[in-house]
Design goal:
CATH superfamily of the largest domain in chain B: P-loop containing nucleotide triphosphate hydrolases
CATH class of the largest domain in chain A: Alpha Beta
Oligomer: heterodimer
Number of strands of chain A: 23
Shape of chain A: elongated
Distance between the termini of chain A: 71 Å
CATH architecture of the largest domain in chain B: 3-Layer(aba) Sandwich
Number of domains of chain B: 2
Helix content of chain B: 40-55%
Largest sheet of chain B: 5 strands, parallel
Structural class of chain B: alpha/beta
Largest sheet of chain A: 8 strands, mixed
Strand order of the largest sheet of chain B: 2-5-8-1-9
Strand content of chain B: 15-25%
CATH class of the largest domain in chain B: Alpha Beta
Distance between the termini of chain B: 27 Å
Largest interface: A-B, 43 and 40 residues
Order of helices and strands of chain B: HEHEHEEHEHEEEHEHHHHH
Mean pLDDT of chain B: 86
Shape of chain B: elongated
Structural class of chain A: alpha/beta
Mean pLDDT of chain A: 78
CATH topology of the largest domain in chain B: Rossmann fold
CATH architecture of the largest domain in chain A: 3-Layer(aba) Sandwich
Number of strands of chain B: 9
């Protein structure tokens, strides 16, 4: 009974206070391709990915009902930085779907306009608005409709205290006539959030991540993931050695108190974790040395570490691109060749035999051979049939193609396959296989097929442990025959560490450039974004990889990426170009799809 | 309305195509011609490569032999072949041989599309020998000073296995063409399509917006040709959004999701 009354009370309050229209909601996922296109078309940076931003705390005045119901405690505002354009997960602030989707497009357009730093939040948004409506008359009409709806949404000015009313009036004037108001009058509370504007300045809090050596992941039960991003900071692990709790843990109402407390097991923990993460204003993270029982997978906005980067010496040293300074920093990464171990030679695993047979049949057509072409305009023999036909129809037309020609179908091509052996490939796909197993099977079938077509190929793998240790595994070099020893090496691959893709691609480029064939194909097989345990992540890794790919193209190589990361559309077009990659929807199909894909791109 | 002057060449009374130079490409081309050097023009589709060669042909008073290369184009399609008629076989010159015999510009459009063995016949013509050996007839033709070899290709195409061999590339004086800057492109659109300045300005803004998404969202950026086509439709009374969809957007992608997203950009510029 108590619970029912509670639910009813909550619903009533929600209905009274919600300034939202769930029926007219538009989700970011449904409109993200349009938003992305508009953002880039209007001048937004290509390397910026688009995803749902975290909600931020609303410090403005809320009315008593809103405070009672907990509504409007957090708001969705858009913002952009060098990494990402963050937009609300869904917009339901306006009563119609067209207004809500127009708001997405408007925010994308506004974020695409670069603004000098000297402006305040208030003037910057007005200035950007002016630029957009001047340059894009189509958006100007949408803007006027949105302003009307936004002002309606903001409620009555007369209900506000005098100072807040003055502030609110200034905002409304600035919305109606952008550029007309230069200063926002001060008030005790910050103004009600303006959905049409990018959010006020925000500074990352906390220091950079602690540098603690990695350890193998602990075994935890089912993990959970969602697409929300949450604000986070690094902190030190509070040292607690015993001590006495003077209160009962159940009485802690806030999750934000950072204390090492064991929470009791509850029903439905999955929801709890995500809910708890939502309730936190800021998630503090650090490393602990104990195993955990439950994992949640989420994306955090952490402050970036700016580590001092001393140049490296000894071994094969490669440069790295720093997108912040737009320079190719020399001597940044060391590639260490992992010696070929004497793994036990083996034959093709039994479970791949059937696929091997099928692929061999399909690919027999690609074997180099001589083709006899009939009815050619030229050739080294006469096509008697065609000549007789011509004589018969002598007065009908002048088809004079009566030669037989022989053409040798040759494939002057070398292909280097570079596979990602990072720890992320240990993730499970389906019930029986991990990504690494799929990669292993793919390498097997790929090699079986290419040895059939007699194409020149090599197989390498890579992973990395920060910039001083990019590990490069040779499975099969170009001049090596595909033998049981190679199969043994493929059989023994195992995942470890991270994915410093740029360095691996640069090293591969050097190897492939040594091949004298007309076409040189660099095939990259991966499961996710470039990343490493240092500053090599996010935009940095993506831009470095992009530069490495551009350099490979300039050397005359053809890079192509095959990925099983279902979200690769966010970043791969920027790295490989629109047609330079493919996402395999069902990773378990990769082994059989890869050879077919190869035949398509080398046709 | 802008005034379009149709210029006619005094000697041949041919219409001189309109061409607005971006840089010093006219000088380079003329100097290459005078020094008997072959020219390679590279640039995205619809940026005016063919128009430039046509213009230069008229300007230099040369005949132009154009060959649009395709993936089945063989060496004998260029050089010539024996044909048969009622009286027996006879030799028929190909466009390249014709140009070498009689002088003029031989223009191979999209040369990377041609079969791999085809470009090799160009080698002896494009270095200082300037000869064309014809195996079939046993002739060795020497190119006259009025002969010029011009090839063009589009490096932006993402054909995985198509490129120009370095040994071919390094025989040519190369001119890189890009899209014209906004002011020049507006002039071109106004001139070519006789459309209002305001419309041309909007179209060029649209083109530049779409170009900035190329590589990421589009395979190929829209060329000036598409913009001129859209401008012609608008000048003939078509609604700007309809014209943009038909002449630009649908030409850029077949993916309905991408065309929808591209229309958002059109609407941002032309209004809904």
């Amino acid at each position: 009974m108590e619970e029912q009354v509670g639910i009813a009370w909550h619903q009533i309050l929600n209905r009274l206070t919600m300034r939202r229209y769930p029926d007219a909601a538009v989700e970011l996922s449904s409109i993200s391709s349009q938003v992305g296109m508009l953002f880039r078309a209007l001048g937004g940076d290509h390397g910026v990915v688009i995803h749902a931003g975290e909600q931020i705390l609303n410090h403005s005045r809320r009315n008593i009902l809103e405070r009672l119901s907990g509504n409007a405690r957090k708001v969705d505002l858009a913002w952009v930085d060098s990494q990402a354009l963050r937009l609300p997960l869904a917009i339901d602030a306006f009563p119609t779907q067209s207004l809500n989707s127009d708001l997405y497009l408007w925010l994308a357009a506004l974020s695409a306009i670069p603004m000098p730093q000297m402006h305040t939040w208030f003037t910057r948004n007005q200035a950007a608005t002016l630029v957009v409506i001047r340059r894009f008359p189509g958006l100007a009409a949408n803007y006027r409709r949105l302003v009307g709806a936004e002002i309606l949404r903001r409620g009555q000015i007369s209900k506000l205290a005098p100072d807040e009313a003055r502030q609110e009036q200034a905002i409304r004037d600035a919305l109606r006539e952008p550029g007309s108001i230069l200063e926002l009058p001060k008030a005790r509370k910050p103004p009600h959030p303006v959905l049409l504007w990018l959010r006020p300045e925000f500074k990352a809090i906390g220091n950079s991540g602690p540098n603690i050596p990695d350890r193998p992941p602990s075994t935890a039960s089912t993990s959970q993931s969602d697409k929300k991003r949450r604000m986070a900071e690094y902190t030190e692990m509070p040292e607690r050695k015993g001590g006495l709790l003077l209160f009962r843990p159940e009485s802690i109402f806030s999750w934000a108190e950072y204390a090492k407390i064991e929470h009791e097991a509850k029903e439905n923990e999955d929801e709890d974790l995500a809910q708890a993460a939502d309730d936190l204003d800021m998630i503090s993270i650090t490393r602990d040395h104990n195993n955990i029982a439950k994992k949640i997978n989420m994306t955090l906005d952490l402050p970036r570490a700016d580590t001092a980067q001393f140049p490296l010496e000894n071994g094969k040293i490669l440069p790295e691109w720093d997108f912040k300074t737009h320079t190719l920093k020399p001597n940044q990464c060391r590639v260490n060749l992992v010696p070929m171990t004497d793994d036990e030679p083996c034959v093709l695993p039994i479970h791949l035999k059937r696929d091997q047979q099928r692929l061999r049949r399909q690919f027999s057509a690609l074997q180099p051979m001589r083709l006899r072409l009939k009815a050619q305009p030229d050739g080294n023999d006469i096509d008697i049939d065609s000549y007789i036909r011509h004589i018969g129809h002598h007065h009908g037309g002048a088809d004079t193609r009566f030669y037989l020609d022989q053409r040798k179908r040759e494939r002057d091509l070398s292909c280097l396959l570079l596979a990602d052996f990072s720890l992320s490939t240990e993730a499970w796909v389906g019930d029986e296989q991990r990504v690494i197993d799929v990669i292993r099977d793919s390498l097997f079938l790929f090699s079986e097929t290419l040895s059939m077509t007699q194409d020149n190929f090599a197989l390498y793998g890579f992973n990395s442990k920060q910039r001083s240790d990019v590990r490069f595994h040779t499975l099969k070099a170009f001049n090596e025959p595909y033998s049981d020893a190679v199969r043994g090496r493929i059989n023994s691959i195992s995942p470890a560490y991270y994915t410093r893709m740029g360095a691996a691609i640069r090293h591969t480029t050097d190897i492939l450039c040594g091949q004298k064939t007309r076409e040189r194909l660099l095939l990259l097989l991966t499961d996710g974004k470039p990343n490493d345990s240092d500053h090599y992540e996010g935009r940095y890794g993506i831009e470095d990889t992009r530069k490495a790919i551009i350099a490979a193209r300039q050397q005359g190589l053809r890079p192509f990426c095959v990925t099983v990361d279902q979200e690769a559309n966010e970043y791969l077009p920027h790295i490989f170009g629109k047609h330079g990659f493919i996402i395999i929807q069902r990773p378990t199909e990769l082994p059989t799809k890869l050879p077919l894909l190869y035949s398509l791109i080398t046709r | 309305m802008p005034v379009i002057t149709i210029v006619r060449d005094a000697k041949t009374s041919k219409t001189i195509p309109i061409y607005s130079p971006a840089d010093d490409e006219i000088t380079v081309f003329e100097l290459a011609y005078r020094n008997r050097l072959p020219v390679l023009i590279k640039g995205p589709t619809g940026c005016g490569k063919t128009r430039f060669v046509e213009y230069m042909a008229v300007r230099l008073g040369l005949e132009m032999h154009t060959v649009s290369c395709h993936d089945d184009l063989s060496a004998s399609d260029l050089v010539g072949r024996h044909l048969v008629d009622a009286t027996g076989t006879y030799w028929m010159d190909g466009p390249l041989t014709r140009a070498v015999r009689h002088g003029g510009i031989c223009y191979l459009d999209e040369v990377v599309e041609a079969r791999k063995d085809t470009t090799v016949v160009l080698h002896s013509l494009s270095d200082n020998r300037r000869i064309l050996p014809i195996d079939r007839t046993g002739e060795i033709l020497e190119a006259p000073p009025e002969f010029m070899l011009v090839v063009s290709y589009n490096p932006g195409y993402q054909h995985l296995l198509k490129g120009l061999k370095p040994s071919t590339r390094q025989r040519f004086v190369s001119l890189a063409f890009g899209f014209p800057d906004a002011t020049r492109e507006i002039e071109i659109v106004v001139m070519e399509a006789s459309v209002d300045y305001a419309i041309a300005k909007h179209l060029v803004r649209l083109a530049n917006a779409l170009r900035s998404t190329a590589d990421h969202d589009l395979e190929e950026a829209p060329g000036t040709r598409l913009i001129v086509d859209a401008a012609k439709l608008i000048a003939a009374g078509c609604d700007p959004q309809v014209a943009c969809r038909a002449a630009i957007i649908e030409c850029l992608s077949d993916d309905p999701e991408i065309t929808r997203a591209l229309m958002v950009v059109v609407k941002a510029i032309f209004g809904s």
